[in-house]
Write a structure and sequence with these properties.
It is built from one helix and no strands. The chain has 61 residues and is mostly loops. The chain has one domain. The chain starts with 52 loop residues before the first helix and ends with a helix. The structure holds iron/sulfur cluster (2 copies). One iron/sulfur cluster binds next to loops.
Length: 61
């Protein structure tokens, strides 16, 4: 089974969920509310990966 790389640290993902913690409130799990984003007329975001339909089905099994 292929291991997933951690998005925060130089290691494989250990499932700690630290990357899910809100940037503004350490007691909150991110719900994508957008409050940490300074969105005006437009915004630029960096994406790590686009998940295809086949991979998405594997992840939801
Ligand atoms: S769950 Fe933890 S180990 Fe996995 S990507 Fe997020 S921060 Fe890294
Ligand atoms: S989108 Fe909302 S919940 Fe997620 S990190 Fe930003 S402020 Fe926190």
């Amino acid at each position: 089974m292929e291991s997933r790389k951690c998005v925060l640290y130089d290691r494989d993902c250990i499932g700690c969920l630290e990357c899910e913690i809100c940037d503004l409130d350490p007691n909150k799990i991110c719900d994508n509310c957008g409050k940490c984003l300074d969105i005006k007329d437009y915004a630029t975001i960096r994406i790590d990966k686009i998940v295809g339909l086949g991979e998405q089905k594997k992840r939801t099994k």
